[in-house]
Amino acid sequence: MAAESASAPALVSGNSVPATEDPAYRVFIDSLSYLQPDEVALIRDAYAFAEAAHRGQKRYSGEPYITHPLAVAGALAEWRMDAQAVIAALLHDVMEDTAVSKVEIARRFGKQVAELVDGLSKLDKIEFQSHQEAQAENFRKMLMAMARDLRVVLIKLADRLHNLQTMSHVRPDKRRRIATETLEIYAPIANRLGLNKLFRELQDLSFTLIHPMRARVIARALKAARGNRRELLSRILESVTGKMKEAGITAQVFGREKSIYSIYRKMEEKRLTFSQVLDIYGFRVVVKDVPTCYLALGALHSLYKPVPGKFKDYIAIPKVNGYQSLHTTLIGPYGTPVEVQIRTEEMHHVAQEGVASHWIYKDAEQSGADLQQKTHKWLQSLLELQSGTRDSTEFLEHVKTDLFPDEVYVFTPKGQIMELPRGATAVDFAYMVHTDIGNRCVAARINHELMPLRTELKNGDQVEVITAAHANPNPAWLGYVRTGRARSKIRHFLKTMQHEESAQLGENLLNQELQHLGVTPAEVPTASWEELVRDSGNRSMKEIYTDIGLGKRIAAVVARRLLAREGGAPATPPLSTVSIRGTEGMAIQLAPCCLPIPGDPIVGSIRKGQGLVVHAHDCPQIRKSRSSEPQKWIDVEWQPAEGKLFDARIRVTAKNARGVLAKMAAAIAEAGSNIENVSMEEKTPGLYTTLQFTLQVSNRVHLAQVMRSLRHIQEVVRIARVRGE
């Protein structure tokens, strides 16, 4: 967090002596007993360095600023992190808030410490258009540093926790903004890394800062409920402990209370009052090994009846953050639902501390290392997202999508388990397997049945993706995919395709303009192209073609520059006709206001960022623009193309009679057309109905055939093609 005082930072002196009489400093040094003496000495030096750098700076509370980095470093020491991480925590704000440079940190404490501090420093020196953009770019930088070294995010999370704990002197609007950002980004990251204890703390603190009254009310109700239910909870605890002994199972059994924020979420999502939230308390059974977990489960199910469908085995299929436990819900005394989690000691460590358990517990070293590998894989996927996304806000959106806590587990045809966020579709699955599979998918078999690509996947589904060599991503997929990976890959493909198609269109427009000026494209000297590319700031001819196709450059101006004839040509020369097939894709758009089809006289206009937009010659929407800005319009003609269907709208008025709609649908089908959409309006109640059809036809002649077929229906009294939206 940036320094909270306008005071100028003191000059740094490596010989500064730390305030050894400060109790917080003494406790911190005592907590470093797990490190080597030479490492502790270096940490003492880092504290002196940070204290000197921040001297004179205050927090909003009036405390010396050094109390903040000391608290963050203390949290790292609790996780038994290495000396480099603890030093980086002490120095995490010096680059941002003082005159200390990365080079100086590297010289004093090593390159790795400097890299950690740099990854944590905000980008305050760059100007952004909005606070949201600045936050997105800061977050992007932190994630990239985190992908290189996981310790960056652990320091950042400890930093965020201490800031939330000491927010009482900060402005209310700033408190809410930081707390909201924590709920949306930092708490989900803690959860994704398996830091369950920290995750709950961040959630509860943020909720209390955003909704202080609601938090107080729930906390008061929870305290009262704790007293009211003490006897019931004691009875359940004794019964569970007794059953474990009876079954010969050595186990630790203890109660656990749900967090304030999780209770609030349940009340809000399910529209319950506090008294209706029955599962406020749960129990945890910790045993020695995995087989004993299942023995304990059997013993509990013989003690109380389990609730059907409420059993989850996260030991056989761990959560994506490494969490493992058996979950079951039992019907306890007086019909009270009782949630129980059963796990081993090692699983308990990982469940509480996640990736940090690798440093804290020697007995959790193996599972901690496995979790670190999983986390590394996730971080690599973030790097992949970053490489395909230039915009920071878009990147942040993709990452937020991937931070949903709930997962579904599905199987590939070969039995491999894939983890996806809840609500993920067959398209998300396809992109999870491989980018090429996602780009080429056309259908999916879910549990051996053909299903639409937008089908949401459920736990245990077996998914097989069907691909086609010439298939491409559909922009409509962006409306229902849930993973950041799928969204990023689809957007990247569509942008690339648009550029490819725009480059082709731009080349055609420029070539036709050169021919109109009496020069074939091959006659343009290479030196002229090189000079134009250099002067324009583009990197290649293709980029210039793309700019022309996207409407960022005018073909006539580019042609004259190539021929060095800007002064000698007429200002607005007549342009030659551009031929289109209507199948070019995103570089050429058929205007929705008039929906031209082959056979209609057409004109086009190059719009910046959109390419060539084609209208019907008599479209009322363009009448004014064509007369006032004729230079912006190009004559366009249809080039014959087989197989492409175009949307066309017709309005049909018919007598109300049984089966008339079925007759119309049959006539349209017999004429070789498809109905894309139909809407009805009763003109004269009981007598006539007007129907508007959106049909797919190949050209104007085909549309005429469809309309002729409809006219032969006795009940049809009027039919016309619709122009305009």
From TrEMBL:
It holds the Pfam family TGS. Belongs to the relA/spoT family. Residues 649-724 form the ACT domain. This is Bifunctional (P)ppGpp synthetase/guanosine-3',5'-bis(Diphosphate) 3'-pyrophosphohydrolase. NCBIfam families: spoT_relA. One of its GO terms (biological process) is response to starvation. GO terms for cellular component: plasma membrane. One of its GO terms (molecular function) is guanosine-3',5'-bis(diphosphate) 3'-diphosphatase activity. Residues 65-164 form the HD domain. It comes from Azospira restricta. In eubacteria ppGpp (guanosine 3'-diphosphate 5'-diphosphate) is a mediator of the stringent response that coordinates a variety of cellular activities in response to changes in nutritional abundance. SMART domains: HDc, RelA_SpoT. Residues 406-467 form the TGS domain. It comes from the Bacteria.
